[in-house]
Write a structure and sequence with these properties.
Layout lengths: L2 E2 L6 E6 L2 H7 L7 E9 L5 E7 L1 H5 L14 E5 L5 E6 L6 E4 L4 E5 L12 E7 L7 E5 L5 E15 L3 H15 L22 H13 L7 H14 L5 H8 L3 H11 E4 L7 E4 L12
Parallel strand pairs: 1-11, 2-8, 2-11
Antiparallel strand pairs: 3-4, 3-6, 4-9, 5-6, 7-8, 9-11, 10-11, 12-13
Length: 287
């Protein structure tokens, strides 16, 4: 598999953004300004990054359907005479990458949430990645992989904890607490088949055995005469048919069968009984 390394030397910022921001970014059209970055340094030399969302992003309804573009990155153009950065989108998708002349910004998000109003001002909490080697990859519609750049800065986009943000969290918690399952009244009854211990077929079998009663052993000669009469009609019988005809217990019936019959263990009459030759009175033509 080929990998496009044209932008391998480009610096990229990897930034984690809140869910409500990533959801609105994914609905923006190509080359839309999504916000502005303000990068300054305090008296101690530490970098401070402020991010303000554009009015169009704030007004975006996350519940409306939008047509995503074919690109998968968000680029930022930096004005050298000012510390502010204008951010525009070239492909809004779930993974967002921003690029500037000296460095670029990538965002990673979790599952989106829905809300009606979001705060505009945010700040970046920048972390040190001197002991890490990170890179950003992209994949187009043709499954072609490309290296978008190496991560030179890692951070997290955090909203400023003002009253606007607190109202947003309050609304999010309220929606999450709403039940997802509700009780509905049906106009007609629905047949609900529940599991049972004993099925009707088993009850019928038990009733049949009960009606027949316990099988009693008859005299041996009576059972033999019954078997001879049965074998006059058919040459081969299985044990279940003989049990039904004689109404004798199976162990007792097998004792008598071993004396007057042969058991076939091979095809074509496998598992069936037939009279021994000395007890047969039919010829070969009747077999």
């Amino acid at each position: 598999m080929e990998l496009d390394c044209q932008n391998a030397a480009r610096g990229v910022w990897l930034v984690k953004v809140p869910k409500y921001i990533s959801q609105r970014w994914a609905k923006q059209k190509p080359m839309t300004e999504i916000g502005r970055l303000n990068i300054t340094r305090n008296t101690s030399g530490k970098m401070e990054v402020l991010f303000n969302l554009s009015e169009q992003v704030i007004r975006t309804d996350p519940n409306e359907d939008s047509v995503p573009s074919s690109s998968s990155s968000i680029k930022t153009s930096t004005n050298k005479s000012s510390s502010s950065t204008t951010t525009t989108t070239s492909v809004p998708t779930t993974t967002i990458t921003t690029v500037s002349t000296s460095s670029s910004l990538s965002t990673k998000t979790d599952k989106p949430i829905t809300t009606t109003s979001i705060p505009a001002e945010h700040k970046f909490a920048v972390s040190n990645i001197n002991h890490q080697t990170l890179a950003i990859f992209s994949q187009d519609e043709n499954s072609k992989l490309a290296l978008e750049g190496q991560v030179v800065q890692k951070g997290e986009c955090r909203p400023i904890g003002d009253a606007h943000y607190m109202n947003l969290k309050k609304e999010t918690i309220r929606r999450a607490s709403q039940p997802t399952k509700i009780v509905q009244k049906l106009d007609r009854a629905i047949n609900n088949f529940k599991p049972i211990n004993v099925h009707r077929s088993e009850l019928n079998e038990d009733q049949r055995k009960k009606n027949e009663g316990k099988k009693m052993r008859d005299d041996k000669e009576i059972v033999q005469n019954t078997l001879f009469a049965a074998f006059e009609k058919h040459q081969y019988y299985n044990i279940k048919d003989l049990e039904r005809l004689t109404k004798q217990p199976v162990p007792y019936l097998k004792e008598i069968l071993k004396e007057i019959c042969n058991y076939n263990a091979k095809n074509p009459h496998k598992n069936m009984w037939e009279l021994k030759p000395q007890f047969r009175h039919y010829g070969k033509n009747n077999q």
